[in-house]
Amino acid sequence: MNILGIWDGHDSGAALLQDGRLRFAVNEERLTRRKLEIAFPARSIEACLAGSGLRPEQIDLVAATTSDPAKTIGRLWPGSKERYYAVRRRKTPPGALAGLTRTLKYRMTEWSPGPVSAALSAAALKRQLAGCGLTRASLRIVDHHEAHAAGAAWASGFTDCAVLTIDGLGDGLSSTISAFRGGRLERVAASPARHSVGVFFEHVTNLLNMRELEDEGKVMALADYAAPIADADNPLLPWIDIRDGVVHTEWPGHAFRRPLARVHWRFANEQFAFLAQRTVERAAMALARDAVRLTGLRHLALAGGVVSNVKATRQIRLMPEVDEIFVFPHMGDGGLALGAAVSAAVSAGGKPCIDLTRLDLGPAYDRSEIEASVRAAGLAPACAGQLPCRVADLLADGRVVMWFQGRMEYGPRALGHRSVLARPDRPELRDRLNLVLKRRVWYQPFCPSLLESEAPRLLADWSGGRNRAMTMAYQVAAGHRALLAAVTSVDGTCRPQIVADNEEGPFADLLHEGRRRWDAGAVLNTSFNIHGEPLVCSPADAVDVFLRSGADALAIGPYLIERPA
Do 169 and 316 fall within a single domain? Predict the structure, then answer.
């Protein structure tokens, strides 16, 4: 059975299951080059079909998600979500009615779906799918949080687990707790959209003059630079209460901005970020504690935009009530297409096999396409024998190398296919990357990729586990912080990618070469893009960003292109 999952909202995309196995997944932003694209994922659908060798008429079922009134209006009148997208991403001035528009947006997204909105959503989706040639496939619309939960549960590798979703909102809910047993999900608690930890943090992000749904990671990073404030003196903590797995907030999401602004007035930005970050951590821990208690299951699978907060998920991992946790690698709404496909497959009687140990699930480009893109930019493609060794030599000399190899990664993190690399022990390289190449705020940390055999030595609280795709923070071992000086946050943690020592491919080979040169099988690994743009996807994208950046070299396919010193 061929099942195509799609998501046509924030960070739209598509994923394809063939007989329950994940064959292809990509997000629309990589193809349209608009960060966190919101348009219908027509190009992602085309890429899924082409990458799997299928024709539209061979798709049996299309699984979409979310049919609440706000989502339905966006499907019927795409211009409404385009306007919000432009304002949120600071592409256009907000206008005289900005405050009213924001309040209306949050009010409408709190509404639950009903028969009318579901029918209108289905009709709009069928029209758009017909434009992609998908007229034979049946359509199933999956609940928003069910899609989040299904993706996390089936990808976790746990036989039984509690599943916790913490999101902004969708289909009238902001978080859910489910029990996953015997291949079935049973929801045991749900929080209404009016009471949302995610919306709380969105307002904080916006008040700090950052882009909500995009810059929450900056708020988390900024919080590390605040003078600590005791919980007893944190005015935000009493505003979010968790009772029996349900979130209760002092105000509904649409009314949260004004009281938050009053608190912000009294505190410096970094202190305000600290207060909010601590509040999110405490709420996430309380939800996790209730998830274990209500389900009787000590393994946790997590999904939803809020669990991208690696400081909060680390606190959950360290809780005595929890044996092990798994964070779905594409935890935000960008992962809903896969979750919807998984849920639909289960409903059709299948048992999906979702292996996310490797996330190179997107488009691939052959040598001729790479060479053509290099020549079209006026560069000379030169084959590099022993490419990992050559790149390791450049990194050892303090050079910054852009790395383009194999298929496109799925999810928000660069994991050794579309990466910018540097030595992990040189803070001056971190600063150069932040201020010159990536063009982002100085306090936002970079992440390491490291061999699994290095994790027990370099990470003080590493005990193995399933979180290998930069979804979890770990404490850097005190005796080895110099080796990871460029990838350690000011609080002493890092967010690593863990690469198996026996993994085949040039990236693992590069890490082995790094161990020989700077005494750590690790590199600084950040996404191959300029800040505010999507991760590069095609060879043409890679060459364009290389020419616009100040990187020293580009390793693309078999070629190594060096910029003159």
Answer: yes
Residue 130, judged by CB atoms within 10 A of its CB (0-12, 13-18, 19+), counts as: exposed
Residue 142 falls inside a structural domain:
yes
Q: What domain range includes position 309?
A: 157-330
**Cβ-contact 496, 474 below 8 angstroms:** yes
- Distance of CA 149 to CAs 157, 322, 327, Å? 13, 18, 11
* H/E element, 549: none
Residue at token pair 């649409």: 254
Structure tokens at 389: 């060794």
Which residues are registered as beta bridge partners of 421? Answer: 401, 525
Same domain for 65 and 165, yes or no, is no
CA neighbor of 4 nearest in space, from 132, 158, 187: 132
Whether residue 229 sits in one domain with residue 183: yes
**Does residue 375 form part of some domain?**
yes
pLDDT per residue, tens digit, the chain (565 aa), is 999 999 999 999 999 999 999 999 999 999 999 999 999 999 999 999 999 999 999 999 999 999 999 999 999 999 888 888 888 888 888 777 777 777 788 889 999 999 999 999 999 999 999 999 999 999 999 999 999 999 999 999 999 999 999 999 999 999 999 999 999 999 999 999 999 999 999 999 999 999 999 999 999 999 999 999 999 999 999 999 999 999 999 999 999 999 999 999 999 999 999 999 999 999 999 999 999 999 999 999 999 999 999 999 999 999 999 999 999 999 999 999 999 999 999 999 999 999 999 999 999 999 999 999 999 999 988 888 899 999 999 999 999 999 999 999 999 999 999 999 999 999 999 988 987 777 788 899 999 999 999 999 999 999 998 999 999 999 999 999 999 999 999 999 999 999 999 999 999 999 999 999 999 999 999 999 998 899 999 999 999 999 998 899 999 999 999 986 6
Q: Do 132 and 165 lie in a common domain?
A: no
